[in-house]
Amino acid sequence: MSTPVKILPYASLVVKLLKGPVEYVEKSAWEKLLQYKVELIIFLQQLGLTLVLDEQDGYAFVKHAMSEDEEAYVSWVQRRSFSYEESIMLVLLREMMAEFEISDSSSRELIKKRREIKEYAELFFKEGASRIRFLKDIDRLIDKVEENGFLQKIENHDLIDEQKFRIRKIIKAKVDSEALEQFQQQLLAHQETPVEAE
Description:
Layout: H1 11-19, E1 22-23, H2 27-35, H3 37-46, E2 49-54, E3 59-64, H4 84-101, E4 110-113, H5 114-122, H6 131-147, E5 151-155, E6 164-167, H7 171-174, H8 177-192
Antiparallel strand pairs: 1-3, 2-3, 4-6, 5-6
Helix pairs in contact: 4-6, 5-6
């Protein structure tokens, strides 16, 4: 008779973390993560992964640990590459988060309507010949950022522009303060560029 295999009490969390970030809004998973964080850190290190945990902002994710031994390297986490426009949209959302955090808001979460995100993005993206196409392009970028897990739709609406999104705090780990500063300098240069009259 075979001995029953003992499943680790945090096994489901490892699987969840390999699929994407875990946030405090997922109450039971978050409590279990905090309970087993030491065990998780040790276990994930054996897989060549590092647990990134921000208890204050309430998110955790895994990333590859640096390894000199290429043969021992296993790719567990899906790497994503973003287009230039998608990168700009991420930085814009991160900028919105930075502004929200220095405001006097009593809310822990940053909730924005699609319309508000588009209005904010319009300040940076250059409008082409067709305004309708331009706004559709921004809608496509918003959808792509949601698909990549930086926005979470929390309320559907008959009018697409009235849909509400939560800007997930994980964006702070993915777009650091250095990237934000570079963006602000580019934005300043963009605003100061004189428009030539025809």
